[in-house]
């Protein structure tokens, strides 16, 4: 299921931030509920958003191991990635569009965390992290080059972008192994994303899953190299852009 930590708009209600604050402050009673236009409701467990390095998927672990020098953690959420990096001597700036998430990240010990959207970031970094389906922040295929161009402008010489996503073509597969995608519709990885918490609904948003080949092609158009670093167990992957 998609995760909305990084999407580049400020939350209207910030239910995500409220949920993180509840968990952090010992008021955990229920999880976030998510759904999309092609999937039913699913729980996003709050404890998962506070996981340790050993509890992270291999793609995330590998990305953190590759991160170096000055790092921008885009869509930091509760700050789990930033905390691990800081504890290993890496200088990190953590940003998120959720005020509640930034409050939690600071309370957990992230040194430099602020409410910020990616397109408004202007500093430069050696490593930029976009994890937990980092391509989701692009929202729609038509905006991919805009975001990649901006990300490129934030890189120091010899810098790198570490980003993960999934090819969700499998979600359109029928029982006979065929696919029911509408060839006249938008790119199949563009989803309408819905979130609710404690009976309250967040404003719907756009979310993008990008297959590796499409990401690779988009990177070429803006002058970025795109390398496949690691593939996960369920159509997911980690890419390194330079």
Question: Could you please describe the fold and organization of this structure?
Answer:
The chain is an alpha/beta fold and 242 residues long. The chain has helices at residues 15-24, 58-66, 80-87, 99-108, 144-153, 212-221; strands at residues 32-36, 39-44, 70-74, 91-96, 113-115, 125-130, 155-166, 190-197, 200-201, 205-208, 226-231, 236-241. It has a seven-stranded mixed sheet, sandwiched between helices. Strands 1, 2, 8, 9 and 10 form a five-stranded antiparallel sheet that branches. Helix 1 packs parallel to helix 4. It is globular and about 50 Å long. The protein starts with 14 loop residues before the first helix and ends with a strand.
In short:
The protein is α/β, with parallel strands linked by helices and 242 residues long. Helix content is 24%, strand content 29%.
Poorly predicted segments: 1-11
- Helical residue percent? 10-25%
Termini, distance in Å?
A: 28 Å
Side-by-side strand order of the widest sheet: 5-4-3-6-7-12-11
Report the C-alpha radius of gyration, rounded: 17 Å
Specify the structural class: alpha/beta
Classify the beta-strand content into a percent band: 25-35%
Mean pLDDT: 92
Number of helices: 6
Q: Any idea what the shape is? A: globular
SSE run: HEEHEHEHEEHEEEEHEE
DSSP, total strands: 12
For this entry, what is the oligomeric state of its chains?
A: single chain
Largest sheet report: 7 strands, mixed
Strand and helix layout:
Blueprint: H1 15-24, E1 32-36, E2 39-44, H2 58-66, E3 70-74, H3 80-87, E4 91-96, H4 99-108, E5 113-115, E6 125-130, H5 144-153, E7 155-166, E8 190-197, E9 200-201, E10 205-208, H6 212-221, E11 226-231, E12 236-241
Parallel strand pairs: 3-4, 3-6, 4-5, 6-7
Antiparallel strand pairs: 1-2, 1-8, 7-12, 8-9, 8-10, 11-12
Helix pairs in contact: 1-4
């Amino acid at each position: 299921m998609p995760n909305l930590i990084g999407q580049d708009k400020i939350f209207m209600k910030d239910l995500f931030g409220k949920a993180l604050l509840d968990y952090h402050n010992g008021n955990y009673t229920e999880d976030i509920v998510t759904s999309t236009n092609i999937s039913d409701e699913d729980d996003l467990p709050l404890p998962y958003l506070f996981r340790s390095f050993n509890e992270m998927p291999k793609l995330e672990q590998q990305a953190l191991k590759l991160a170096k020098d000055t790092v921008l953690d885009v869509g930091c959420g509760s700050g789990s990635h930033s905390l691990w990096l800081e504890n290993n001597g890496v200088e990190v700036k953590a940003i998120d569009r959720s005020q509640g998430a930034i409050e939690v990240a600071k309370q957990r010990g992230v040194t430099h965390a602020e409410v910020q959207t990616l397109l408004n970031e202007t500093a430069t970094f050696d490593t930029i992290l976009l994890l937990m389906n980092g391509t989701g922040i692009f929202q729609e295929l038509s905006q991919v080059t805009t975001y990649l161009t901006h990300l490129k402008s934030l890189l120091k010489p010899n810098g790198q972008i570490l980003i993960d996503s999934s090819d969700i073509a499998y979600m359109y597969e029928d029982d006979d192994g065929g696919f029911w995608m509408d060839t006249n519709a938008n790119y199949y990885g563009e989803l309408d994303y819905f979130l609710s918490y404690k009976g309250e609904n967040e404003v719907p948003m756009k979310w993008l899953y990008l297959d590796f080949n499409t990401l690779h092609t988009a990177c070429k158009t803006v002058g970025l190299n795109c390398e496949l670093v690691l593939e996960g167990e369920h159509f997911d992957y980690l890419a390194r852009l330079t």
